Amino acid sequence: MLDYTKKEQYDRSALRVNPAKTCQPVGAMYAALGVHECMPHSHGSQGCCAFHRMFLTRHFKDPAMASSSSFTEGASVFGGGSNLKTAAKNIFDIYNPKIIAVHTTCLSETIGDDLNALIQGIDIPDGKYMVHTNTPSYKGSHVTGFSNMVASFINYLSVSSGAKNGKLAMIPGFVNPGDMREMKRLTKAMGISYTMLPDTSGVMDSPMTGKFEMYPQGGTTVEEIIGLGDSKLTLAIGKFASEAGAEALEKKCKVPYKTLPMPIGIGNTDKFIMELQSFTKDEVPYSIEEERGQLVDILIDIHPYTYNKKAAIFGDPDTVLGIAEFAMEMGMIPKYLVTGTPGEAFETAAEELFTKFGLSGCKAKAAGDLYELHQWMKEERVDLLIGGTHGKYIARAEDIPFVRAGFPIIDRYIHSYMPLVGYKGGMRLAELITNALMDRQDRDSTEEDFEMVM
Amino acid sequence: MLDYTKKEQYDRSALRVNPAKTCQPVGAMYAALGVHECMPHSHGSQGCCAFHRMFLTRHFKDPAMASSSSFTEGASVFGGGSNLKTAAKNIFDIYNPKIIAVHTTCLSETIGDDLNALIQGIDIPDGKYMVHTNTPSYKGSHVTGFSNMVASFINYLSVSSGAKNGKLAMIPGFVNPGDMREMKRLTKAMGISYTMLPDTSGVMDSPMTGKFEMYPQGGTTVEEIIGLGDSKLTLAIGKFASEAGAEALEKKCKVPYKTLPMPIGIGNTDKFIMELQSFTKDEVPYSIEEERGQLVDILIDIHPYTYNKKAAIFGDPDTVLGIAEFAMEMGMIPKYLVTGTPGEAFETAAEELFTKFGLSGCKAKAAGDLYELHQWMKEERVDLLIGGTHGKYIARAEDIPFVRAGFPIIDRYIHSYMPLVGYKGGMRLAELITNALMDRQDRDSTEEDFEMVM
Amino acid sequence: MEKVLDQYNSRVYKNRKEHMVTVNRNEKNEIAANVRTIPGIITQRGCCYAGCKGVVLGPIKDAFIITHGPIGCAFYSWGTRRHKAKKEDGVDNYLHYCFSTDMQEADIVFGGEKKLKKAIEEAMDLFHPSTIMICSTCPVGLIGDDIHAVAKWAEQEYKIKCIAFSCEGYKGVSQSAGHHIANNQLVRYVIGEGDREIKTKFAVNILGEYNIGGDGWETERLLKRIGYEVVSTFTGDSSMDDLKNAHKANLSLVQCHRSINYIAELIETKYGIPWMKVNFIGVEGTIETLKNIARYFNDPELMARTEAVIADELDLIEEDMAYYKSKLKGKTAAIYVGGSRAHHYQFLLDDLGVHTILAGYEFGHREEYEGREVIPFVKPDADSKNIESITVQPDPEKYHVYLSEEDINRLKEEKLLDYYGGMVKDMNDGTYMVDDLNHFETEEFLKLLKPDIFFSGIKDKFVAQKGGTLSRQLHSYDYSGPYSCFRGAVNFARDITMGIYTPAWSYVKTPWKSAPILEGTIGGGKAC
Amino acid sequence: MEKVLDQYNSRVYKNRKEHMVTVNRNEKNEIAANVRTIPGIITQRGCCYAGCKGVVLGPIKDAFIITHGPIGCAFYSWGTRRHKAKKEDGVDNYLHYCFSTDMQEADIVFGGEKKLKKAIEEAMDLFHPSTIMICSTCPVGLIGDDIHAVAKWAEQEYKIKCIAFSCEGYKGVSQSAGHHIANNQLVRYVIGEGDREIKTKFAVNILGEYNIGGDGWETERLLKRIGYEVVSTFTGDSSMDDLKNAHKANLSLVQCHRSINYIAELIETKYGIPWMKVNFIGVEGTIETLKNIARYFNDPELMARTEAVIADELDLIEEDMAYYKSKLKGKTAAIYVGGSRAHHYQFLLDDLGVHTILAGYEFGHREEYEGREVIPFVKPDADSKNIESITVQPDPEKYHVYLSEEDINRLKEEKLLDYYGGMVKDMNDGTYMVDDLNHFETEEFLKLLKPDIFFSGIKDKFVAQKGGTLSRQLHSYDYSGPYSCFRGAVNFARDITMGIYTPAWSYVKTPWKSAPILEGTIGGGKAC
């Protein structure tokens, strides 16, 4: 497995091998699925839309509905305006969404289609909406696309009425529905009225009912997005995925914002809860304090199995940073952190974390790939690999325990229902990690060292 | 590993090899820990108390506080009355519980100590309580002990005031705090006022606070137990662990009861919810319906990995039956079901399940042991073993994937926080099972069959 | 059918009506296919890149395929298509890798050739491949990168084979364009270059078999058991060396007609090897196919061996098949998959007593529906004209024939060679044939026809299932397989049986909705 | 100390006061030990069965131990004590099994001998053990089952060794009684029976080493490296055959004095082999022990080899130990464990610069606290008198001496042989020694003394930790180990360092409790 990956360092500048990111549009599509009655629309050739739907479906095991401008060679030469017009008419006609959220592709971006102008030229039915975002595939990553789509929803729709509504706006980051549910549960437990954008819970984890719903019960409503302009504060969860949206809302509607790290682990969840508390000024309920205390208790209990264990973590920047900090809280050494998404901020934040926990010898890289991560792991072995499905080849090649966390996970089920965020998510993640390490200890132990009690 | 276990059937009537049960007192101790400000007291030699505390601590990784009558040879000859008297005085003096819950041991039972009489002879401080239950180790199992302790709490304390309080009494069975929390969450979501007895949540999963609490926040209060007499209905969750308590309450206070299977899996949780609905007459909230639909969705999604997979399941009777039914809902074949707890009802219930799902060739045995289960597994292999820690030797010997579920789990962490009951518990159990099977597929696949998408 | 169409506006109605046929054996059953999808219609179709890189080239294990473009396309086609390949001594296997130039904005603005060259340089340093393939994605065509020139440069610079494929996603109307482009280059630059010694005269190529889920291995096992030599498989589990020797065979077997018929024809023209449409899906289908091949080779011993192997393989699966048939008889199916599978699987379903009531292709042409006799009447349109068609001449040295021209012509007349009859001839009156079945129609047809199973792909699988209809992916086999030949039939039968009988279906209805106030005894408990 | 005691009522106060000593080197430091625990006091003590079956007999790998009694006791002692044992050719290993008669009510009422016999019959059929041991639990003594008669029957019936142990839980006041009972029977029925050839004169027994976490293996490795032959280990990783040959050694090394001193003495009386208290825990302790053993054997080459091995082993751990010492220096510890460990580990903690401020035994006798010189003054009470003491005579054939009587006597005078000085001599003034430390006192002492680490067992571990004090189990080593000798010291140092430095401790305080209204910049976010 991966027999051609060599330990020796080699400086690549052109060949990307085994990427740890994908392109913007799929992120934009995911964000748009988190808006109620929204049809995500891919403005490009239909293969993009097919790939993205396929990929989201593989991760969530739920339908990912989206339409395409179905460019042919003609459209590529003459521009995609007429395709978009036809598409809009047909979509409103046939699928009757409340809103169409268009994202571009490398094709339409390279052609130079002016989406603002195109949409203005389209006859949108009364009470319906059409928005767009630019998601050139040759910039950033799927996280950027997610971020851009959120900002565009706000730019198109949010309005400041002049009267604050006392609500908290929350951009949850590129996370699973299970994570969004957990953030909402905590926010509700704090007695806070909020709008989460996007919110794919109820959409990408929708129940089996025997009836297919093109627009399931979940998702942020257009009205809620409009109302975001009157929020008191925005919490942007995850700098990479959520800050752009928060900035947009500040710029357009003067809603101040704070950027928080993804609430994975104790410290990051503490920040989340404290921020909520500073918003509501109410006491934190005991139930949350109890969950926190349970997680601390667990971490102390399991430390003999986690302390000084080296982990390689890859995936999306906000998630990797969150998991890395939690790993350090568990006494682990997050030896290698890799995200495919470009952005120096990732490396800076990682270095700050290493310093905070007094670690040296750890590496972090943005715009990296799994080939390089694998090289590092050959150079100095780790005890655990954490990331999405694509890590499984490395885990097998190097015979290293593997915990699936993040996006995408296309070879397992149920993960998208299960939060990693919050103290409860910490329990899950701690269990996944500890079990992986303990299972390995059991597997590798001699018969005489095989322990009944651990 | 377990090299001396032979495939060939052999009918044992005297030698117990690798038991799948332990003795009554530990169950009584666990039940008593689920009462707020209660000191469980072991009336016997101090080794019993030590073993039981040790065992509960190993499973829960939390303190299991209990005292002992510390019999010596003298007490064994002359009876333990004076020991109990001294113990009661010291316990109230030093540890100041609200209530002492005495359980007997094979020692005091064999001596024939009359606990009723002994307790009547003790000077119990005002506002304090002392109750007892008989838990001869040579009858039943830890589940019986749990059951007896619950019944004794009721027999001693519960009073019918003549006016119903509209509450539901719930005996949750021999389950983890995480399970109790989940049953309470569902009951609360149904808008029902209830008393759960016992309730070890908050006790055996108490948070780290930097301060040891002999009596943490959790547990059923004595007042609540007294008030059980005014309940409208009792739900006994699990025939083996909970029916005795419900019967006691019916007999003493005329509270009618229903016995439900452990709400593991869809059908059993449906029964639980329907029963709650029939109690409240209110609509089931959408949040519960959604969880249910998600679990159904998941089971359909994962069926290619679970269908016709053979499982051996062992542990406590109510739990094993619950897991077995869920396994069948997943299309699995619960080939062997073993509990160490005696009781024909287990085999009858299992046979009914096999019939309901149209399965033949499955075996169920009460009062069985792991040696025999292992023999069966040698005779016809299964794809998965589900049970407590003691199964790990068999799993290793036979190289069979192993899912830890039930009691006791003394070689892993965090499990006691995580419910198996309810639809949410179903998701967890489904994930554990599917991951175990899929991890095995990955492990055993050739490189060319190693799948990226599953 | 009208019920579905009636909900469209007039333009869409008009367009989509032509893509739907209620089968009537006494009529022409003409269908519109291989034409562009209307924008905004939620199609399941993919793109040219997916057809070229994803389908045809992807399985070639020692081809080092660099996707030239932004990262997405390479990422999505990494390890996701289940074209399995075994390690082989002396042959590289890059299937677990994903290579891309990961083009950035500057490359789009200033051109990507430089980066592509650098990527090749790095590939050579790190991997030393003997073959590099370059597949371009959408923007590459627009910015005018000359990937063919780069390929030529690489061949000279590194003395390797380097082939460029201009398979930008917007070309054509579906994956089909990509197959064509891949086919052209393989004929141009690969086939005919080999010099492997062929050991028996019963030497065949298997064309259009990508070894999804191990189908190709099962087919090969069967053919070898009978005594055939498989010279090359296009392209499942193949090395470049295998493909280079395709001209040495004496017959080309065409499994997936759509994706590979260009190669089949060009091989015949250039090397004299006729092709035969085969079908290894389904027990009866496989038997007929084996007999047809034997007829071509016309050798008594081979024929006897064919019969013996058929009998033996049948014997092994008989009991299982009978069991599954007993569970499936009378069930109905709808099939909507890429190319030929929608046709092939009807045979296997027939074996199991399952009736196909609707079938369609995602990227088939009219000949896959109506048979090759319709080809002369297919009008090229703007989209199809944009895809290059190449012509070849007989190769003076390598042209060879196994049968006499007379025999060949006879077999052609018997439609045993160079012919494909299409799907419609095997469908029953009153069933539906729908091309480019889109989301809306899927939803509506499932509601109207209520098939027991819907065979499709990952994008519509969960749509069907949310609606209560079992769906199995026939692109990826839902990560199972093989489904080909005799043993594969049992796997397939097992998989759909478990899907239909999976107990979870019976829990779809929420019980408290149907019985809101249930009283009385529950689960063996006592009544109050 | 008074702060703790003051909270007791007068009876308890009086009793417990005698179990507590503030160490003062100038005084006698007399302590009450090995007396019964007051009922109701939450003691950590176990029972006689735990000491006999759990501690001493459990590790014998080929002994087929049937726990005769209700199921619990067998279940709890199944695989939970970490006495590791390797597979060995020709030697059974039953350590992964649990055998019990699982007595039921009828057996209690009508007697359990019949069931026990049947169990032995079944054991013979299924396992063919060469040795069966019967351990009885509480009710067996009361109902009067004669397990010794059953053992005799089994020996005759099956020509195997069968030994019965009347180790009912209520006997004695702690596990200690069980050790004694086990010791007695091993001397009576096992030691002396072997006829193994001893290869070197440097032949030793290791007594009181149960190979928890592999400690015994590490000790054996070290001894063998120097040139010793380990004849038997009692009882870690031992076979019956090893134990049977204990009389062939020339010196008995006693690691855990409490659990095995009966055997050490009886061996000396019967076979002439003196015993030496050793301590393989701690670097300095191990060095001193190795030198002492060499002094006994008094061989220049052996002595040189001893020095060389010490130097080499030290060299390997020096850097690690220095590192961990730098992390641990100045920390304080409290230790409360079963027998000798509370003493031994103080040496290792000293090596690391950790001060022990409180120490106590769960089941030690006064001699483990005050030294063997106190033995004549220990008054037997009702509980201790109930445990049989056996006497032996010199064995005319097997009695042998390595040193002259003169030398032996000199070494005895030097307290190198047959002597144990107890814990108190190694403790500092002002530290505390508490016997049978109970839950209440644990809680109070931890609050008062605030040690950085509390070494104890599973029952009080989480009590300490909930209170914010790291606790490591010194019975099971928290599933780590070995902790013995040089390498073990590093393991130990690593484990407690990670415990103290584990980051989770810094999260114990709930942040919103200390800073209820925090405003401003969080996590790099912008301020509003």
UniProtKB/TrEMBL annotation, chains A, B:
<dbReference type="InterPro" id="IPR000318">
    <property type="entry name" value="Nase_comp1_CS"/>
</dbReference>
<feature type="domain" description="Nitrogenase/oxidoreductase component 1">
    <location>
        <begin position="23"/>
        <end position="437"/>
    </location>
</feature>
<dbReference type="InterPro" id="IPR000510">
    <property type="entry name" value="Nase/OxRdtase_comp1"/>
</dbReference>
<comment type="similarity">
    <text>Belongs to the NifD/NifK/NifE/NifN family.</text>
</comment>
<protein>
    <submittedName>
        <fullName>Nitrogenase molybdenum-iron protein subunit beta</fullName>
    </submittedName>
</protein>
<keyword id="KW-0535">Nitrogen fixation</keyword>
<dbReference type="InterPro" id="IPR050152">
    <property type="entry name" value="ChlB/BchB/BchZ"/>
</dbReference>
<dbReference type="GO" id="GO:0016163">
    <property type="term" value="F:nitrogenase activity"/>
</dbReference>
<dbReference type="Pfam" id="PF00148">
    <property type="entry name" value="Oxidored_nitro"/>
</dbReference>
TrEMBL record, chains C, D:
<dbReference type="GO" id="GO:0016163">
    <property type="term" value="F:nitrogenase activity"/>
</dbReference>
<comment type="subunit">
    <text>Tetramer of two alpha and two beta chains. Forms complex with the iron protein (nitrogenase component 2).</text>
</comment>
<feature type="domain" description="Nitrogenase/oxidoreductase component 1">
    <location>
        <begin position="47"/>
        <end position="498"/>
    </location>
</feature>
<keyword id="KW-0500">Molybdenum</keyword>
<comment type="similarity">
    <text>Belongs to the NifD/NifK/NifE/NifN family.</text>
</comment>
<keyword id="KW-0479">Metal-binding</keyword>
<dbReference type="InterPro" id="IPR000510">
    <property type="entry name" value="Nase/OxRdtase_comp1"/>
</dbReference>
<keyword id="KW-0560">Oxidoreductase</keyword>
<dbReference type="InterPro" id="IPR000318">
    <property type="entry name" value="Nase_comp1_CS"/>
</dbReference>
<dbReference type="GO" id="GO:0051536">
    <property type="term" value="F:iron-sulfur cluster binding"/>
</dbReference>
<keyword id="KW-0535">Nitrogen fixation</keyword>
<keyword id="KW-0547">Nucleotide-binding</keyword>
<keyword id="KW-0408">Iron</keyword>
<dbReference type="Pfam" id="PF00148">
    <property type="entry name" value="Oxidored_nitro"/>
</dbReference>
<keyword id="KW-0067">ATP-binding</keyword>
<protein>
    <recommendedName>
        <fullName>Nitrogenase protein alpha chain</fullName>
        <ecNumber>1.18.6.1</ecNumber>
    </recommendedName>
</protein>
<comment type="function">
    <text>This molybdenum-iron protein is part of the nitrogenase complex that catalyzes the key enzymatic reactions in nitrogen fixation.</text>
</comment>
<dbReference type="InterPro" id="IPR005972">
    <property type="entry name" value="Nase_Mo-Fe_asu"/>
</dbReference>
<dbReference type="GO" id="GO:0046872">
    <property type="term" value="F:metal ion binding"/>
</dbReference>
<dbReference type="InterPro" id="IPR010143">
    <property type="entry name" value="Nase_comp1_asu"/>
</dbReference>
<keyword id="KW-0411">Iron-sulfur</keyword>
<dbReference type="GO" id="GO:0005524">
    <property type="term" value="F:ATP binding"/>
</dbReference>
